[in-house]
Amino acid sequence: MKLLLSIVIIAALVAVPLWLSDPYLLNALITTGIFVIGAMSLNLLLGFTGQLSLGHIAFFGIGAYVSALTSLGFDVALPFGLRVVHEPWPPLAGFAIAVLVSALCGYLVGRLSFRVRGAYFVIVTISFAEVVRLVALNWVELTQGPLALTSIPPMQVSFPGIGEFTFRTKLHNYYLVLGIAVLCYLLIARLVHSHVGRAMRGLMENETLAVSIGIDVTKTLTLAAVVSAGICGAAGSLYAHYMKIIDPEIFTFINTVTMVIMVITGGKGTLAGPVVGGLIFGLMPVALRPVMAPEAQWIAYGSALIVILFIMPRGIVPAIMQWFPRMKPVTAPSFAKRGVEESA
Questions:
Q1: What single string gives the DSSP state of each residue in 178-229?
Q2: 63, 235 Cβ separation under 8 angstroms
Q3: Structure-model confidence comparison of residues 341 and 305, the more confident one
Q4: Where are its TM segments located (predicted)?
Q5: Where are the domains of the chain?
Q6: What is the DSSP string of 62-75?
Q7: Minimal CA–CA distance to 97: which of 62, 130, 129?
Q8: pLDDT tens column, 239-283
Q9: 147 pLDDT exceeds 80?
Q10: What does the mean pLDDT of the chain come to?
Q11: What fold, for 2-336?
C-alpha cells in the first residue's frame, strides 16, 4: 500500500509540467522543492534525534557559496603573502564539493555542540549561522559581499561518449530538483530504518537508557548532523545554480524558521512530514499573492500555522494516519518497543 502510494505521488509530480504551463508557478515549485530538501535534512535532526537547530540555514548557504565559487573560480589573497587561485570547475564538481564541505562543517559543529543540550545547543547553532553570514558579508574579495556572486553557471552533467547536458530551462531544473529530492528522501529513509536510525530514536526517547546499553551519544548525533548538513548543502547548491545569483541574505533567520515550520506542521519524525508541510507553506504565499496585500498574506500565513497546530498538534501526516488506522506513518521503529521485544 505504501509503495503503491509512493509510486502514485512520484508519478503525479513527474506529470506536473505536462499540464502546468505557467513559468511563474513552475518557478515556485522549483524553489519550494529546494526548501523541502532543506526541511527533510532538518527533520533528520529535529524529528529523529530531538535536536532543534536554528542555524541550519548556514549549511544551505555554505553549499550555495561553495558550489558557486567552485564553478566560477576565484583569486584571493591570504595572510603571509599567500595567494590562492582556482580555475572554474564544472558545476557538477561544485555540487559534490558543496555536499562534502557542508558535511564537514556539520561534523565540526556536531563534535563541538552535541556536548551541550537544549537551549545551549540552539544558541550554538544560531551563533554558527551568524558567523558564517558575517564571513560571507565581509570577505568581499572572495564572496563579493553585499554585491553578490553573479553569473553562476547552470547545473551541467557530462555523459561519456554522448556529450553534456545543461539544465537551462525551468522544466530541466524542475526534474533535477525532483530527482535530488527523491534520492535524499530514500537516503534518509534508509538511514532512519537502520540500526543507526534506531539509535537516534533511542537517544530522543530515553537518552539514559540508550547510553546504558552502549549507544555512543556524540558519535550517533554527529553522524546525523553530517548527513543532515550534507543534504542541506546539496539544496543550497541547487539553489545557487538555479537562481544564478547569491548574496549574504541567503543566511537570514526567516529561512531557517521556514524550514522549521515545514517540519513541525507536516509532522516531525515522519518521512513524509517535511514534504507535505513544505508543499503547503512553500506554495501558500504564491496562492495568496493575487488576492491579498503583503501584510494580509503574513497574517493568513500565521493564522494557517496556528489553526493547523491547534487542530493537529503532532502535524498533518500523523493526524492523517490517525484518521486512517490502516496507513501507518513511515517513522523509525520505536526504540522502547524494540528494546522490550529484544529483551523478551
A1: HHHHHHHHHHHHHHHTSHHHHHHHHHHH-HHHHHHTT--HHHHHHHHHHHHH
A2: yes
A3: 305
A4: 25-46, 58-80, 92-110, 119-140, 174-192, 221-239, 298-317
A5: 2-336
A6: HHHHHHHHHHH-EE
A7: 62
A8: 999 999 999 999 988 898 899 999 999 999 899 999 999 999 989
A9: yes
A10: 87
A11: ABC transporter involved in vitamin B12 uptake, BtuC (1.10.3470)
